Amino acid sequence: MNFEFSDEMIMLGEQAERLFAARDARKTARAVLDGATHRYDAALWREMASLGWMGVAIPEAYGGAGLGAQALCIIAEQIGRSLAAIPYATTLYLAAEAILLAGTEDQKQALLPAIAAGERIMSFVDATTGARPGQVGRDGTIHADALLAPEGEIAGSLVLAALDADGEIGLFLVDLSQAGVKRAPITTIDPTRNHGLLTLSHVAAERLGSGAITRATLDRLIANAMIPLAFEQVGGATACLTMARDYALERHAFGRPIGSFQAIKHKLARMFVANELARSNAYYGAWALSTNAPDLAEAAAIARLTAIDAYHFAARECLEVFGGLGFTWEADCHLYIRRAKLLASAFGGTVKWSETLMAQIEPRYR
Amino acid sequence: MDFEDTAEEGVFRALARAFLKENAPPPPEAGAAIVSTDLETARAWQRAKADAGFAGILLPAEAGGRGGTVMEQIIFDQEERAVGAPSDVHFMIGLGICAPTILQFATPEQIARHVPPLIRGDEIWCQLFSEPSSGSDLAAARTRARREGDGWVIKGQKIWTSGAQHSDFGLLLARTDGSVPKHMGLTVFILDMKSPGVEVRPIKQISGASHFNEVFLDEVHIPDARRIGKVGQGWKIALGMLMNERLTVGRVFSPDVGPLIRVAAQTEINGAPAIDNAMVRERLARWYSEQQGIRHTVSRVMTALSKGRDPGPETSIIKIIDAAREYEMAGFALDLLGPAALDRAGGADAAPALIGAFLEAPGTRIGGGTEEILLNVIAERVLGLPGDIRVDKDIPFDAAAAR
Description:
The complex is a heterodimer. Chain A is α+β, with helices and mostly antiparallel strands. Chain A is about 55% helix and about 15% strand. Chain A has 11 helices and 9 strands. In chain A, strand 3 (about 155-165) and strand 4 (about 170-175) form a beta hairpin. In chain A, helix 4 (about 70-80) crosses helix 7 and helix 8 (about 260-290) packs antiparallel against helix 9 (about 295-320). Chain B is an alpha+beta fold. The chains are: A alpha+beta, B alpha+beta. Chain B: One of its GO terms (molecular function) is oxidoreductase activity, acting on the CH-CH group of donors. Chain B: Keywords: FAD, Flavoprotein, Oxidoreductase. Chain B: Belongs to the acyl-CoA dehydrogenase family. Chain B: This is Acyl-CoA dehydrogenase domain protein. Chain B: Its cofactor is FAD.
């Protein structure tokens, strides 16, 4: 058994950690929140692209490095830790994977090299559920109002899961530079992850691949994305613990560092316990994803659940350690609270993923 | 990352399987009441393992062990559990805690005398640490050892001594000097549990079981040849033992959600199956996620050990999480069963085991380091936070005790 990342992966993580620290990614994220920087950290995005980090999990045949899912997870952890305001998650964990999963060879050749080069930001929306699911007509166009789209203001293209004319599920590519695409800004709880409202007025939607996909395939695509996302959450939770620990050593009350009081020590130790549990499950998810293990769906749900819990807990307790200061706009604590909630809500929270997990394990135990 | 055996591990696993297939006694019948393995069966099995080189896998071959690797120990444990072989509960403290300490600190003569029979299960060991007035604050031990002739005379009382009623020997922490601060005046001895003046009294726990004992020591003579390490070196030795203890405790159990899922499938809430209730499902999913998280944390610890690294106090998270889960899961299952859970004898089939687990769990949270102590260990040794203010740290023990 060897349940550790390889030295190559660990070095990639350290390199990412250094870059995000050197570029002070958190500062730019705050500037996005304050409205001082436009929508995302474009300079950091370009620099990451020049280092080849968009393409770590994209096969070499399509302009990537072909390092696989573990490399994606390694970079995700550092993105989460630094709060980098970049459209990495939607572009790579979902849209690029959807193209790899369903696209024709021509579509892969047309899209993936541009993604790997950082030239194309992608959005991903699952419009197959809800009262009025999105449906692509026989003429190959779609009409949809107010689609809440991650990276909706900045994405060049959208991968849309929608119904086809026969009512089957399909994955469709929508070029967002077409006439008929209207974008409206939207302020979410965490503006450092761009979102936009898209209105599509009979715009062309090109099917990825040649036919419908099953609900199970779509669920699997989304579940797989929860694993690198869990690494972002674990990275964020780790940053909260570090920040709170450093502050607890520096801040004095009653003549001693507050970190010498057991109430604070135990709070921080419990953050550590939750973070390590989430980290172990995320690691297993990375292994399952990179090997397409039989229990991948279960591993994804578990990684998701413990990562959501750990990040919420760490972000909240970090603010508490900072006391009143933590509640101010100036302190960075709320950046993590926002990100923790955004990442938890984005693909359904713990109730949804608990149910997803139970559906996997219950038949086995009954 | 991979979960495959290396070539050497695969060879060892095949060896272990072949040995177990040929030699392991048949497992207890399915459905049989869960009882601790009787001592003679456990002893016979321990001897069989020792003869084949599968007892004390981590302990050196010249002392009767295998001189093997951590991975070999883990692989053997896995395979042994898989065939339902008798539990090694009687020998665990000796093998996991006492033997490594003796090997590290004792003289070659002491090692030759004590370690081989320990590994064979011929002699059972316990550790005599906690006292009525010193549990978490172990260095405040009051049991005294005073010098007399060629040996020592012990007077005092130990408590929470697991397995003392079966033990032949114990590692005893005693105060040899009260004129220095508490950590500096301690010494470790090998106590012959059959010596005159040693009295063992079982403690009845809230579950009704008696795993622990009080041990009264009334003018017990120990020859100086049975002292381990130097006089005054006891605290250093004790700390090493505590780390071994936490590893051992961490290995013992991780409550499984499976039986709880079955209870939920067989019970109803207002006429609907409990297993279909969203709140029940969310709880089960959370506990299962924790269970897997522990499993994968153990894999991380094993990897560190197999690469020759010390996994360190991080392993404490295993006990912190599992102790809480055991209590909460058993309590939740009893809630699901409702009134059928109240009747220990005539109620639901699962009730006796669940009530047992519910009443055992608070002990797990305390034994081998309370949750609070483990959180302190993480805070101080992992996160680098300041130690607590210890008002008695620099004061001679006798002066501090008199205050």
